[in-house]
Amino acid sequence: MATATNPVVTQYSPTTVQQPKLTSIKKLAESSSEISFIPSAYKYKSGNPQDEAILLDDDEEAKIPIVDFSLLTSGTPEQRSKAISDLGKACEDLGFFMVINHGIPEELMKEVLDGCIRFYDLSEEEKHEYEGKHVLDPIRCGTSFNTSVENVLYWRDFLKVFVYPEFHFPNKPAGFSELSSQFCKKSREVTWELLKGVSESLGLEADYLDKALNVESEGLQIFIANLYPPCPQPELALGMPPHSDHGLLTLLIQNGITGLQVQRRNGKWVNVNAIPNSLLFNTGDHLEIFSNGKYRSNIHRAVLNNNATRISVVVPIGPSLNVVVNPASQLVETGNHPPAYVGMKYKDYLELHQSSRLDGKSILDRVRL
């Protein structure tokens, strides 16, 4: 397929991070524990419930699709076929699902989450060592999302690390890097198997997606540790705004504190509470592009509370940075299903995504035809 050029990207400015010196949310929350108001820079919402999308009833939580990983990898042919069907339906309907029986030890996940706490307990000076200067630096620590372009800041501290095909990681605190390396390796193996199932659910060969996007040998994997401290006015602020992820699939674990919400096709939001020891997954923009719109990337956000710190570890996996991502040629039929997206190198898309304000699918909209 011929690759078109996106004129928006060629006009996009360099993406060096020039963030103002801001206090981390952790430090701000700890220093203002007796204050009942947030700084105006963090006021994202008006506080009027009528201004917000309707939140679905709590019983909707039980309807998050579940995929049994053991059936996908070692079930009978009939069980595997059912697991692939469930996976495809989850990607098509909600773009969000839980994976059970995945084989990653629960103790390892707890140790990684504890490692995140120890990282954020480092001094401000120690964390500043990992600030990064460019959105594609392999290690970046900061606050909000991209403070150089945001009109409103988010109640969140983050650590972002490129962990595959090359493993980078802070050398503090002791042991955190080793634990995270183990977790990333196991989560990568789970995601790769899921992507094989996704490929088959689209009517393609199991290895079609991998061969087209060079995922297993050079696909980018990122480890993101998010910290959402208690917020004195959680109804006015957000941890992360509504957005879709770059990449193919994103894995998420959290410390048992709720705060993740996903958006259904009807625009309504639903709270997500994971089954103990399960993995949460959502579809990314590049799975939508690859499937030519059959599987749509999920929009989600992080809401806050005023009494507990939420920690989440998010691990997106995408194509090779140098691959130009187009709709799969076998899914494109001239006349009936023409390409719905222009081809773009994953590295360029990632740079654009990380350099912009988060706003739903505004970045994906730039490559729609």
TrEMBL record:
<dbReference type="InterPro" id="IPR005123">
    <property type="entry name" value="Oxoglu/Fe-dep_dioxygenase_dom"/>
</dbReference>
<keyword id="KW-0479">Metal-binding</keyword>
<dbReference type="InterPro" id="IPR050295">
    <property type="entry name" value="Plant_2OG-oxidoreductases"/>
</dbReference>
<dbReference type="GO" id="GO:0016491">
    <property type="term" value="F:oxidoreductase activity"/>
</dbReference>
<protein>
    <recommendedName>
        <fullName>Fe2OG dioxygenase domain-containing protein</fullName>
    </recommendedName>
</protein>
<dbReference type="GO" id="GO:0046872">
    <property type="term" value="F:metal ion binding"/>
</dbReference>
<keyword id="KW-0847">Vitamin C</keyword>
<dbReference type="InterPro" id="IPR026992">
    <property type="entry name" value="DIOX_N"/>
</dbReference>
<dbReference type="Pfam" id="PF14226">
    <property type="entry name" value="DIOX_N"/>
</dbReference>
<keyword id="KW-0560">Oxidoreductase</keyword>
<dbReference type="GO" id="GO:0031418">
    <property type="term" value="F:L-ascorbic acid binding"/>
</dbReference>
<comment type="similarity">
    <text>Belongs to the iron/ascorbate-dependent oxidoreductase family.</text>
</comment>
<keyword id="KW-0408">Iron</keyword>
<dbReference type="InterPro" id="IPR044861">
    <property type="entry name" value="IPNS-like_FE2OG_OXY"/>
</dbReference>
<dbReference type="Pfam" id="PF03171">
    <property type="entry name" value="2OG-FeII_Oxy"/>
</dbReference>
<dbReference type="InterPro" id="IPR027443">
    <property type="entry name" value="IPNS-like_sf"/>
</dbReference>
<feature type="domain" description="Fe2OG dioxygenase">
    <location>
        <begin position="216"/>
        <end position="319"/>
    </location>
</feature>
